[in-house]
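Memo to structure team: turn this sequence into structure tokens by end of day. - J.P.
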Amino acid sequence: MHTVSTDLAPFKLINHSLHPLDGGAHDYDALLEDIGDACYVSIGEASHGTHEFYRERALLTRRLLVEKGFHAVAVEADWPDAYQANRYVQGQGDSQSVEEALGGFRRFPAWMWRNTNVVNFLQWLRTYNDGLFADIPNQGPKIGFYGLDLYSLSTSIQTVLKLLDDIDPAAGQMARARYACFDPYLGNIQKYAYNASIGIKANCREPVVQQLMDLQQARLNRPANDSGEQRELWFNIEQNARLIRNAERYYRTMFAGAVQSWNLRDAHMAETLQALLQHLRQQNGQPAKVVIWAHNSHIGDARATEMGWQGEWNIGQLLRQRYGPQCYAIGFTTYTGTVTAAESWDGLPLKRQVRPALEKSYEQLFHQLDAPDFWLGFKRDPELALTLQGPRLERAIGVIYQPGTERQSHYFQARLSQQFDAVIHLDNTRAVQPLERNIHWEQGEIPETFPSAF
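Reply from structure team:
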């Protein structure tokens, strides 16, 4: 047991309420019971590069798919890149392996999805969809894997044009003419954002809006007896066109302020999820149940955080406002260990040392409890929720880790029990393993405790 600091929250109550995690088959039985009939379960991560977050998220997701009949996994990834993986797990497309199916994830930070944990999960998903598990047969529709993010403007344009050229060349020509306004910027989309910010006409707005409207109308005009394959094809085209419209808007406001661009991005993720729910309902003939994977900062209710107090919203807040008790959000925390992250944008993935959590943070509080790894649920424990309503510091590491400015770069104030319905704490965690590992990642950083004389 760790030494307890007397100025922190009532440890006896929290210790009594925690559910220890020891790697057993029943670790999450009570959490599954707590989730109940929720249809939209969001599972976060406190960094984009921690092995245990990916591992436990996949474990929970498998149980939701098998035991509670969830239909899809929607992730913080770009639509066309994730859709290639979706085709693979559903036994379609040209990819011969899961590594090949993840081939779209080549841009920084590729390790978010091109890592060994994602490979293992998608291979499990393919095997489950194929009905090859003797002890857990899949008797429902095949599970999908979809992206919610909007950074793939160029890839989405290429996808729309290719698919339309194959099925409706005239529509493909019209789309090519409309998207031609992006041609000068596709190698440097930030130039488009900059031009818009200084008043140079950003002339792609109307064409991309019109293109999406035309595709939506074309889908509505499709025969009612269209095959499921045809409906899926047109949905994929429409979703890429929706991404292009929203990405254009996002880049046009990039220099207008961080709050506005953040809100547009999460609004796009919520809009994409809503479109996916409607599509799955049409395809499967029943309301869809979806697991959402994204960073804590996206899936926890922004209204309970410093982000929200500054005017930002996120998909977690938008889901709660729309669906209320049908949503269930699970966050992660860790105290120390290693993480895969870059030193700066577009940098190499490195195995970085994660500093011990700061004083007066949730992570430091949890480090002092009786169990190193555990989960806490707030929905059915109002006394615990009151104890952990903060505000208190919470750590967030994205794809970049800057320990030299850790307080400013990686901590914010939050009311944990209002932000999430449950939280999983894993005290000492390891860096996720990228599929493409370089010598710098393999060697890792020298711990800060290494003798200074050396």
